[in-house]
Every structure is written in C-alpha cells, then in structure tokens.
Amino acid sequence: MRDHFIKSTIFFQHLLSSYFQRITSQVVETLLVLSVCHLFGLYNPNQVADALELPKTRLYRSIRSLSLYHAKSLNLRLGSAMALDFIKDTESKSASTRSRRCITVSVDDTNLPRDGETLAYTSNYWSTTQKSSIWCQNVLGITLKVGDIVLPLDMRLVSKQGRGNTDKPSLVLTMLKEVLAFFDAHEIDLRKYPITFDSWYGSRKLVDALSDLGFASILVHGKNNYVMRIGDTTAKLSAHKKDVELHENQWGCDKPVCRRKAESPTFGACVVIFFRDRGKIRTLLVFGKPIRTCEAVRIWSQHHGIEQYWRYLKSSLRVSAMSLQSREGAYVSLGIKVISYLMLLQVSISERRTFHQIQLQLTGERQILTDFITHFHELIPKEP
C-alpha cells in the first residue's frame, strides 16, 4: 500500500503543477499535505499541525494565498482530469464492456452542516433527515460514474444571499458548460452520455437547455404530484401508479416495469417508466432519443453513485471538520476533500480495498507520515 500511496501523491503533485502553473510549489505542497493527512485521520489544518509539529500559521498562510478562481478550479479540473483516462479506457473497449460500465453523468446537491455563523455560503436549509431547518452550506455537484467508480467533475457552493443568480437549474447549466468546455478541449464528447437528475430539478426549461447543449438522453426522477396525460386519463403520477400494471421478466429488466408515452403541460411529450424498487413504485421521465426500458432503469441505477460520493465526503473525509473563512476558504476546504477522495480512489483501485479498510490501516500507521512528510521540505521550518 505504501508504494501505491506514494505514487498517488506524486501523480497529484504533477497534476496540480501542470493545471495550476501560477500556484507556487509551497502552496501545492500544503494542499497535498492536508489531503494526504485525511487518509490518516487528520481532517483539518489544526490536527495536521499538532500531529506533525508543523508551523500552523504557515499552513493557513499558504491556503489564504489562493485566489477564488484557483480555489474553484480545484473542484473542477482534478476530477475531470482523472475522468479523461477512465473514459478513454472505456471507449477503447468492446461494445459489451462499454455497456456494462454504463458511463453516466449525474447532478445532485447536498447540505453540509456547519457550526460557525460567519462562514461563507452558510444559510438555513431544510434537512429531510432531521425534519427541521439547519445551518449549513449547500453544495451542488456533477459526477461521472464509470462502472462502480464515481468521479466528481465539478462542485459549486450555493448561496441564498448576494446579487448573483442562485437559481440551481441555471447554476447547473453554468457548471455543465464549464465541464463540457474542459472535455471538448481534450476531444472527449461528454454529451453522448446520459445525464440524470433528481425530481427537484425537473422543468421543461432545463430539459430544453440541456437539449440545446447537445445531451441526447435526459432522465429525471418523477414526483408524485407531476400531472401527466397517459392515454385518455389526465392525473397526477400518484394516481397513475395505482392503475398501472407492472410486468415482470421483461427483456433485460430485473424489476417489474411498465412503459407509457405521456404528455405533460409542464414537460411536454416524454416517456414515463414505472418500476418497483424496494417495495415502492417509482417513476422515471425519459427525454431525448428513445432508449429501451432496461437501459433507462440501468442508467437510473447509476444515479446512486452521486449519493455514495456525498456519503464518502461526510463520513470518510469529515467534510464538516474543516472550516476556513472567506469564499476562497470555503472552496479550498472543499477542494482539499476532493483531492483526498481522488487519492483514496486511486489507492482503493490499486489495492482492491474499500475506503474504510484503507483508512483503518493507515490510521494505525501514522508513523509513516513522519518519514513521508520529509518530501514536503518547504513546509518544515529550518530553525527550531
């Protein structure tokens, strides 16, 4: 594991230096030190400074030197750069392998609980788990899932305050344009892969905008209160669920399903797929080019990858444990978690272990950090 761990660190050192040429080597080393220490159970600069006896002020000074542009770019370029290799590898395989890996783009948001009221981008948001309003940061993310591998393409903090446009669907389009521009520059067409959304983002305006961007397959989870005309009946999807007859053992489907053409005053014409999942009948709205029912259900099963990603950030990397002030600090703290996640992903693929297994082993081997930190010589004070 030690060799894979060192290779991953060197890889990101070169990646940061190549994509962020105006960032000094000391800042690169600081970001890597803070990211590496996450694998050993040290989740913020204070813990890192105390454990490694590093000058705390120097860590914070290096982080504060990052501009807002570079801080935001940490959440865009690194995951996208890794995704390039996975996409190229998949596209070089046979059609059956490409079908099994089922490359899918997913969009979703999550809330990160915060205690500090002076932190940037914090507001009161409703928590479905706590059934109350909590003080937190809202993060909007775009991920790519290739088989079982989930890669963050871009993340953006959403603010309720200020003069900027905080409409999430509009922000999604802005983020998608940035991601598409990155992949277009590397001659990868991301538009040919399906994109999935939760029901919160469902709107005709968003679907039309995505179609204008060139996305061929758009899948949106259906809400019960969506009004649809199916056949001669116009009713909410909750009413249609009671009348629909699901069929088992359909070709390629491992769930009971039913497919219907529908017309909606909100969405226009679309295909509605009813399927039973964990005892409940769920609905899926399919826009764009016609796809098989089994393919649509398979694509939607990939949407769970973004939920896995949020869970890793919150539980394995303790995203709420790092609280840096200012807008730059908010994005830097998020970017450091992204680097740590990508490092864990690389080591996990090489070692064929889960994130939890890797962190358990490394947490008990913190003495490795003492030898490893000598690589980052600029952070260590020359005088005692």
SSE pattern? HHHHHHHEEEEHEHEEEHEEEHHHHH
Distance between the termini: 33 Å
Give the overall pLDDT as a whole number: 87
Main sheet: strands, sense, barrel: 9 strands, mixed
Basic shape: globular
Sheet-strand content, in percent, reads 15-25%
Q: What ranges have pLDDT less than 50 throughout 5 or more consecutive residues?
A: 380-384
What's the β-strand tally? 11
Radius of gyration: 22 Å
By secondary-structure content and strand pairing, the structural class works out as alpha+beta
Query: Helical residue percent?
Result: 40-55%
How would you name the oligomeric state of the polypeptide chains in this document?
single chain
Please report the number of helical segments. Answer: 15
Q: How many domains comprise the coordinates?
A: 2
